[in-house]
Amino acid sequence: MHHAVLLQPTHVLHRVGRLTMMAFMNRTFNPLRRSGDVAVPSKPPNRAAATSHYIALAVLAQLFSASAFQPCLHSHRPRFGSNWLRSFTPTAFPPRALVLREKTDESTITPNKDQPNEEGTQVEPQNTFTFENGLSSDQIDFQGTPPEAGERNELQDVAPTPPEIISMSPSKDRVTHYLQQRLDLDDATLSKMIQRAPNLLGLSTDNNLEPTLDYLQQRLGLNEAALNKMVKRAPNLLGFSTDNKLEPTLDYLQQRLGLNEAALSKIIQRQPSNLRLSIDNNLEPTLDYVQQRLDLDDAELSKMIQQLPALLGHSISVNLEPTLSYLQQRIDLDTAVLSKLIQRFPSLLTISITDNIQPTLNYLQERLDLDDAALHKMIQRMPSLLTCSTKNNLEPTLNYMQQRLDLDNAALSKMIQRRPSLLTLSISDNLKPTLEYLQQRLELDNAALIKMVQRIPHILGISTSHNLEPKLVWLQKRLSLTDEGVSKLVQSIPSIVCLSVDRNLEPTLTFYIEALGDECKALELVKKIPHLFTSSLENRLKPRLVEACNASLIIDTGCLKRIAMYTNEQWNTSLAFQAK
Asked: What is the pLDDT of residues 38-79, one digit of tens each?
């Protein structure tokens, strides 16, 4: 015969507490102690016990009445740990007392391990009990409710997420499975994302992850690969509300910077963390400051941000203003020159004064013996020098060029001032291969090589395979030159290797051939005077030829030399004289 017994929460704790602890905590501690007829939670001896203690209470509340256990849970919530503890916050069953069915002669709740059954065999404890509604304890889902989207534990990063706890959570399993399938992630990448943004495990796939991913993909016009790349770089974006955060931020950037959809998408893909910035506290103040400080119009501001989207994440007081003030004072720049410098190379605003800008300026001035004006001019021509490391870039490059070209300090300084971009070239990828190629291809001794480089330093920045060699081959073939002939031609006018075959050399040669009406004479003329290739076809050669024809001059080799090589004053005098 059975009879129903109405149990209040304190009685439930007393009668079922130890059983629950044994089932879930493997007897590692005794979570409850008796005080008269009431079960009172004991004080855990350490952090691990306290954590387990809280989980046990949450499990009991999940089984019975969450509302009745809330005070107890609140008083025993650990003050440490990570978000995984929140997964044990109980969802409320209908708030009512628990009704258990008990037998008069034996209990189905705590079988006695030492009590033989009717057949004489020992009874193994089942650790189960039966509810009034027919459910047994082993049929109950002990998983709690995950935290709300974006909810953060005040000390979430103190303790790592125990993998065994994660594996108990079907909601977390759904999240990881969804992310892995939706973003095509391997296990290592997924693990890295979760470590960077553990709050992802508390998000709902239906209410948070899927809508946010769909919104970003549609709003920014991203394909799957671009979406995956962006989310991997900034996984916390998935925790933001589309209506309250993402949409307003994107709309503000688009309107403030006058961006079309493609430009907006490009900015966000390059710097997805910009979507985490506050409009009122970050984006608007930064944009206003940069525009006013550098006296930029809207188009110039938009262009700068598109060049360097990361600029929006820098502090005005800590980064932007100190850097601008230092540059202005150290290099003696007025606002207009400073603005032009920053517009050319906005990355200057992202580098450290003490670690980069100051040591680089001091090193260049001392190493190349520059006065303030020369230093000023060099930085204006090549602002990216300030991003170069003195130890890893500038010093090794200067030492190599000085030793390889046998230059004294004055000659080295003069060459660098003429072409400061040389300091940005790699020794192994640019300088050394180019010098070796020129010396071997043109059969130059060291003296001839040094003379050529000093006359045209930027030859060291020209690609040998894609630029130098094709031009030398064209000159040798088109002008019927031997190896020695092409070497002499280049030594006489090294700048010829800086001209484009399609835009300069071929059209200019065609002009001389058509003007003379004799290809052989034209070829002999340019081989004898290769400087004829350096005259501008549109600004000098064609206009002067028209003037010569209008003056009824004879177009011969002498006339073409005057057309190509005379200054404007000399040409006008010659034209007037010949017209008489």
From this structure: 334 444 445 555 555 556 555 555 544 444 445 454 444 544
Phi, psi of 99 (to 5 degrees): -110, 115
Cα-based distances in Å from 209 to 13, 39, 105, 148, 216: 38, 43, 54, 13, 11
Question: At residue 457, what is the residue type?
Answer: P
Q: Specify the long-range contacts of residues 52-56, CB closer than 8 Å, at least 24 apart.
A: 52/25, 52/28, 53/29, 54/78, 54/85, 54/88, 55/24, 55/25, 55/85, 55/88, 56/17, 56/20, 56/21, 56/24, 56/25, 56/31
pLDDT in tens, 471-508: 999 999 999 999 999 999 999 999 999 999 999 999 99
Quote the Cα angle for 426-427-428, to 5°: 95
How far apart are the C-alpha atoms of 517 and 555, rounded to whole Å?
10
Concatenated DSSP letters for 94-154?
PS--EEEEEESS--SSS--TTSB-TTSPBPPP----BBTTS-BGGGS----PPPPTT---T
Query: How buried is residue 184: exposed, middle or buried, by Cβ count under 10 Å (0-12/13-18/19+)?
Result: exposed
Q: How far is CA 418 from CA 113, 382, 387, 414, in A?
A: 94, 11, 20, 6
pTM comes to 0.63
Render the burial of 151-182: b for 16+ CB within 10 Å, e for the rest: eebeebeebebeeebbebbebbebbbebbeeb
pLDDT digits (tens, 9 = 90+) for 131-156: 333 433 333 333 333 334 333 333 33
Half-sphere exposure of 193 toward its Cβ, with a 13 Å CA cutoff?
26
Cβ(18)–Cβ(32) under 8 Å?
Answer: yes
Report the C-alpha gap between 54 and 201 in whole angstroms. 20
Task: Give the span between the Cα atoms of 189 and 187, in whole angstroms.
Answer: 6
